[in-house]
Amino acid sequence: QVQLVESGGGLVQPGGSLRLSCAASGSIFRIYVMDWYRQAPGSERKLVATITTDGTTNYADSMKGRFTITRDNAKNTVYLQMNSLKPEDTAVYYCHGVIAQKDLPRNYWGQGTQVTVSS
What we know:
By secondary structure, this protein is mainly β.
């Protein structure tokens, strides 16, 4: 079984920074794409950023220039550095990975970590 465990969320003032981490563990053959999503109260879950195996990244428009996604393939970990945070960034942030245990890749989700931006 594969598990994704997020950490690093919390309360931060507007303009501040946070770094989220997501570690994948279990019987992993290969990790393909890893993403961060977020879900604010009363809203649908939305894509924040994506990183492929070779490090190619993609961001939602509102995060470009403020958020940076990186990954450490040796540690099976993906990070999300969030700078210049705004109150509208408040949400539960979820890690997602397309991961193969033997041959067929499957979707896995973390449990989510709360990020609250408030003065």
